[in-house]
Amino acid sequence: MTDPQHLFDLTGRVACVTGASSGLGRRAAVVLAAAGARVVGVARRPEALQSLKNEIGPAADFVAADVANRDAMAQLCKKISTPFGAPDIVVHAAGINTREVADNVTADGWDKTLALNLSAPFFLSQAFVPAMREKGWGRIVNFASLQTTRAFPGGIAYGATKAGIGQLTRAMAEAWSKDGITANAIGPGFFPTELTEAVFADPDRAARNAAQTCINRNGRMEDIDGPLLFLCSEASSYVTGQTLMVDGGFTAK
């Protein structure tokens, strides 16, 4: 029997977290480091990443880059692997929501949304799979959304990518879990992040969203900690291809 005290212990593991400059990505980086992992944060803003490194300490490093730039993927992966070695855990928290209504969606907005929200998680994971396969252990955690299964106004491009994340997660599991690499997704409800600033800036809208949950409140940053650690650790060794909704029961109603 596995010692329950060690199920969530990430000592000796290396994690890469995209979107680590703010919001749930930053929270993920801090939590994984607190559980014993060495963490490399990836985002476009070096100042915010330096702040994250200062907060975590020697167990953290960062790479300032655009994960949607596929032409630079090989170089990016090399930089991510330089501080601590190739990651065992990859958390894809980077994302964009242009909030363009269907009639006003632009080709540029559509392409940027797909490149960052859907293409980047696949190609970055694909690049690190060989090292995970060699160790016989890996964890891929994608970020889904309420819009993985629900349609929201102004969310047609974002929603399409998040629905795609649901299927991408299943397909990753089918392809790689036989090698000890699990692939799962977290589907956050409404959390106070940069991506949801417009929602929380409107108290009435935030209250309506809270009322739609079973718990009757919106998410707090600490609500993501347990689900994330579960999917990144030995605790979830027989769980793969799943989307875990962390939404207070929003999608249950």
Automatic annotation (TrEMBL):
In its UniProt record, a GO molecular function of this protein is: oxidoreductase activity, acting on the CH-OH group of donors, NAD or NADP as acceptor
Keyword terms, alphabetized: Oxidoreductase
Q: Which InterPro entries match?
A: NAD(P)-bd_dom_sf, Sc_DH/Rdtase_CS, SDR_fam
Record keywords: Glycoprotein included?
Answer: no
Q: Which residues cross the membrane?
A: none
Question: What's one Pfam family the UniProt record gives for this protein?
Answer: adh_short_C2
Q: Which family does it belong to?
A: Belongs to the short-chain dehydrogenases/reductases (SDR) family.
- Matching PANTHER family, A to Z? 3-OXOACYL-[ACYL-CARRIER-PROTEIN] REDUCTASE (PTHR42760:SF133), SHORT-CHAIN DEHYDROGENASES/REDUCTASES FAMILY MEMBER (PTHR42760)
Report the protein name in the record.
Answer: Gluconate 5-dehydrogenase
